[in-house]
Amino acid sequence: MTNGSPGSFPSAALDWLAPVEPGVVLAIGRPSAVTANRLADLGSRVLLSDKSGSAVRATRRRYPSLQAVAAAPDALPFVPCSFDQVLVAQGLHLLPSGLVLDEFARVLAPGGRLAVLHTARDDSVPWVRRLATILREYDPDAMTGGAELYSVASIAASPHFPVVEHRSFRLWVPITRDGLLEMVSAAPRLSVLEQADSDRLLDEVGHLYDTSARAPEPLLLPYSVMCWRAAVDHSELSAAIRGADEGFGINFPW
């Protein structure tokens, strides 16, 4: 089962992550597109970078207000100091942390910030804990995670981002009985169970829903929206940061 929320995150989280003044933002990876689009609505000029050309085309179709380019996050084709903010949503753990943090620092302008967010289920709620117990009878790794959060430690370990601030925001997402059964059925390892096991699992999950929800209201699936921000420190870069007079760069069509 995935840890990403099907809904958006609270406005307070966006306000905390957004640049103090609307600026030029580089969003890394297609998963950042939803948040990037909201930053664009607040007045920032946003460029999304993804190493997949198909992801770039899909982003352009879905979010016409965003500019998008195909580029690897550890080899960004931008001159130094091009952006006021670099945004990574739901994907820092998938990146080579040392290389990308060096690149993020290089393309950030003095005073610029790295903003990272990750939305994960809050499994401390009693009915969610009971759901996890049921699922782990069929898949011991169900509703587990942690790589996403461990990856954030690399920011504080980087000399380019010496001070990391953190805030968490609560998000409640309504989920119907059918929606919960569909979510369970779609989990990779649970979706390939033998029919008898699958039927028994869904019966147990359905019973959990029926005994936990207060009809006609749906259950609320809790999420924690975890946000980090860190101002760049250029003093540890191997060479002075300055705009290139020559060489390859991308001109923004703004």
* Percent strand: 15-25%
Count the DSSP helices.
8
The level of helicity is 25-40%
What ranges have pLDDT less than 50 throughout 5 or more consecutive residues? 1-7, 243-248
Count of spatially separate domains: 1
Query: Sheet bearing the most strands, described?
Result: 7 strands, mixed
Instruction: Output the CATH class name.
Output: Alpha Beta
Structural class: alpha/beta
Q: Helix-strand pattern, N to C?
A: HEHEHEEHEHHEHHE
Mean pLDDT: 87
As laid out across the biggest beta sheet, the strand order is: 3-2-1-4-5-7-6
Structural description of this entry:
- The chain has a single domain, classed as Rossmann fold, CATH 3.40.50.150.
- The chain has eight helices and seven strands; from the N terminus they run H-E-H-E-H-E-E-H-E-H-H-E-H-H-E.
- It has a seven-stranded mixed β-sheet with strand order 3-2-1-4-5-7-6, sandwiched between helices.
- It has 254 residues and is α/β, with parallel strands linked by helices.
- Strand 2, helix 3 and strand 3 (67-70) form a beta-alpha-beta unit.
- It has helices at residues 11-17, 33-41, 53-62, 97-107, 126-136, 147-157, 177-186, 195-212; strands at 24-28, 45-50, 67-70, 83-89, 108-121, 164-175, 219-231.
- It starts with 10 loop residues before the first helix and ends in a 23-residue tail after the last strand.
- The protein is elongated and about 60 Å long.
- Helix 5 packs antiparallel against helix 8 and helix 7 runs antiparallel to helix 8 (195-212).
